[in-house]
Every structure is written in structure tokens, then in C-alpha cells.
Design goal:
Layout (H helix, E strand, L loop, with lengths): L12 E5 L19 H13 L4 E6 L13 E4 L1 H5 L2 H22 L2 H42 L9 E6 L5 H10 L5 E2 L11
Parallel strand pairs: 1-2, 1-4, 2-3, 4-5
Helix pairs in contact: 3-4, 4-5
């Protein structure tokens, strides 16, 4: 019977939340973030194979999931994030509008080319020094909001046995999920057992 165990019971469901696999849960400033795809893929695969669970993996990263067990259902937020109005506004104000303003002059000899190079450098600097640090703080909240809209249509939190949080970017979504579902086990512990304490 699909979705059921050998005794006819429904298979437990697990949600692994790894919004940004490049950020570990370790808060110490001297600990470098380590790409933890292998750990995430291994944990999700273990729940699917050894525990017989139906596993959902939620991420905002498009690449790195080639070795994911075929039984694990992948929910990607990268397209929804890329289309968010905040990112569109930044691209428009920092890159597109300055390019449109400079374009008529840019095609007129050396001075135009120099002005165009200066415009490109200024846009990149504003992006790197102002927008990226700001977005780094806003991104977890933005992804939590996107996840609530897009993923919860497919994943019913009431049917989950456990939610495993893999990185700091995933914490706001996990907190919201725990508040809305008081009986749900939401944990940062990466125990390979559904019976482990939260």
C-alpha cells in the first residue's frame, strides 16, 4: 500500500529544512561555514531507507542535490526567491536604471566607455557593500514567508513526525512551524532515529 508500512500503518513523515546548506548551526564566529550537502543527503536518505519515512526536503539552493535519494521529495524555493519584489527592486535601482541613464553616452568614444565602467563598478560596490549585508539579515525571514506560501500547500504540518532544522537560515520558518503546531517535534539535533528525544 503506498505511503504505508508493512503492517498497514501510515509511514511517518519527516521534513528536513536546509534553506542554506552553506550555513551551519554553529554560532561561534571562528568556525567556518561548511557545505553540509553530504550530511543533509545522508540524513534524508537514512530516514527514507532505514526508518521507512516519507521525507520532504526544503531548500533555497538549486544545486548540490544530485545524490539525493529518489524517495526524498525536494521542495526548492530558489525560483520563488529570485522572483521576490525585493530582489527585483534592487536589480532595477542598482543595475538597470543606471545602465539606462548611461547607455546613450556610453557609446560615444573613450569618455563614454569610461563612464560606463565607472557605472558598473559603482553598481557592483553598492550591491556588495550595502545590499548583500542587508539581505543576509532579511533572507531568513523572506524565505520563511515564501516557504509558508509555497510549501505548506503540499506539506501538511499536522501529519509530520519530526522537523529537522539543518542551518541558521531555516530557524525563522521552523519557529513559526513550532508555534503553529505545538505538538510537532522541531529540532536541530540530527539524530538518525525518529524515536530520539528532540
Amino acid at each position: 500500500m503506498p505511503g504505508g508500512g508493512m503492517d498497514g500503518a501510515r509511514a511517518p513523515r519527516v521534513l528536513v529544512v536546509a534553506m542554506d546548506p552553506g550555513l551551519t548551526m554553529d554560532p561561534r564566529p571562528n568556525v567556518k561555514p561548511v557545505r553540509q550537502y553530504r550530511r543533509i543527503i545522508g540524513l534524508a536518505g537514512h530516514f527514507a531507507a532505514a526508518e521507512g519515512a516519507r521525507v520532504e526536503l526544503l531548500t533555497a539552493e538549486s544545486d548540490g542535490w544530485d545524490d539525493l535519494d529518489g524517495r526524498v521529495r525536494l521542495h526548492r524555493l530558489d525560483r520563488a526567491e529570485a522572483g521576490h519584489p525585493l530582489l527585483w527592486l534592487e536589480r532595477t535601482l542598482v543595475f538597470r536604471l543606471p545602465r539606462l541613464v548611461v547607455r546613450p553616452v556610453a557609446r560615444r568614444g573613450r569618455r563614454g566607455a569610461r563612464l560606463d565602467r565607472a557605472r558598473t563598478m559603482a553598481s557592483r560596490r553598492v550591491h556588495r557593500r550595502l545590499f548583500v549585508p542587508f539581505y543576509r539579515h532579511v533572507r531568513p525571514l523572506l524565505l520563511a514567508r515564501i516557504a509558508r506560501r509555497h510549501v505548506l500547500r503540499d506539506v501538511d504540518p499536522a501529519g509530520l513526525a519530526r522537523v529537522v532544522v539543518m542551518d541558521r537560515t531555516s530557524v525563522p520558518f521552523a519557529r513559526w512551524l513550532a508555534r503553529r503546531n505545538p505538538g510537532l517535534i522541531v529540532t536541530t539535533r540530527q539524530d538518525r532515529s525518529l524515536d530520539a528525544a528532540p
